[in-house]
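Researcher: Quick test of sequence recovery. Tokens follow.
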């Protein structure tokens, strides 16, 4: 295991006119991450994802719990942990006013390389991330995607076996997001273990070998994207009725081919296998009951359906 964490908790105390206020950002998180995998921490903003990663990266101490990174304890051996990780936070961590080349060389020198080694490693990374032509431009003059690639290069300068990416594609356009996904996959193919946090459902589904879903500082479920989606059946029918939704929910729940029905505001989600063949049966049941239909759609189950099942609300709405 590259990461083993048990019962991680983090409590913050803020001061106000009414006195100290305690906030439980992380309430007891367990994580086990295998070497060589992309592991995701998925959840809405404010769920505790960034706080969890910052504890694992030794940036803040846990209030309770234990964590080993590459066999080293995050509280008892923080220097050893830092030797084995790279970290790119949401802000990126690169000097906006300095050229990218200087930032890379500086990071390598801080990591203990000689000047010659630092320059060689910087050239290697810039070539790998297609940054050589941008090397001498101040970071502030680059696009969001180019800045993010420089931040990745800085995090990888010392060839860490484990790389933390906190919301890596926030603010990127679709093309740069897709490019970054490719670069993350390349890192995994080279043997780097990656833990990334995200609130993008598509990102977690596309990249992660396994993931946990975190909500309100707790892990609500864990598994591969395929395993988690299989829990809620293969297809989802989302419908909006013109009549009493309660009557519609009871009718749907009584159908033998429907595994589960979830109400959400003015819609109902029915989970079933083989939706293409069973949808006509569902429509016939509604017609025979005399229920009017405003809209209906058939989709494959997504991680949003997994989140809805475990929390009672949509991750898209929560995010």
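Model:
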């Amino acid at each position: 295991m590259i990461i083993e964490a048990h019962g991680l908790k983090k409590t913050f105390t803020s001061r106000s006119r009414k006195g100290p206020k305690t906030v439980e950002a992380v309430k007891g998180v367990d994580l086990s991450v295998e070497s060589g995998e992309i592991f995701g921490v998925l959840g809405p903003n404010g769920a505790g994802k960034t706080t969890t990663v910052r504890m694992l990266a030794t940036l803040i101490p846990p209030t309770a719990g234990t964590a080993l990174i590459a066999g080293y304890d995050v509280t008892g051996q923080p220097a050893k942990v830092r030797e084995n990780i790279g970290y790119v936070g949401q802000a990126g961590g690169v000097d906006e006013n300095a050229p990218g080349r200087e930032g890379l060389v500086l990071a390598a020198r801080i990591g203990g390389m000689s000047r010659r080694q630092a320059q060689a490693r910087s050239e290697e990374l810039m070539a790998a991330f297609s940054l050589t032509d941008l090397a001498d431009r101040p970071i502030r003059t680059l696009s969001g995607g180019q800045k993010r690639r420089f931040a990745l290069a800085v995090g990888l300068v010392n060839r860490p076996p484990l790389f933390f990416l906190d919301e890596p594609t926030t603010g990127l356009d679709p093309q740069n997001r897709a490019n970054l996904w490719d670069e993350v996959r390349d890192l995994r193919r080279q043997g780097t273990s990656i833990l990334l946090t995200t609130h993008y459902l598509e990102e977690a589904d596309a990249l992660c070998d396994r993931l946990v879903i975190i909500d309100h500082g707790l892990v609500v479920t864990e598994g591969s994207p395929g395993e988690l989606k299989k829990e809620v059946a293969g297809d989802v029918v989302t419908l909006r009725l013109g009549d009493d939704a309660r009557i519609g929910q009871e009718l749907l729940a009584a159908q033998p081919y429907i595994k589960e029905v979830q109400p959400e505001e003015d819609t109902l989600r029915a989970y079933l296998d083989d939706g293409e063949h069973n949808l006509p049966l569902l429509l016939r049941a509604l017609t025979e009951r005399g229920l009017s239909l405003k809209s209906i759609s058939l989709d494959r189950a997504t991680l949003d359906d997994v989140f809805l099942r475990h929390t009672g609300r949509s991750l898209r709405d929560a995010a």
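The mean pLDDT is 89.
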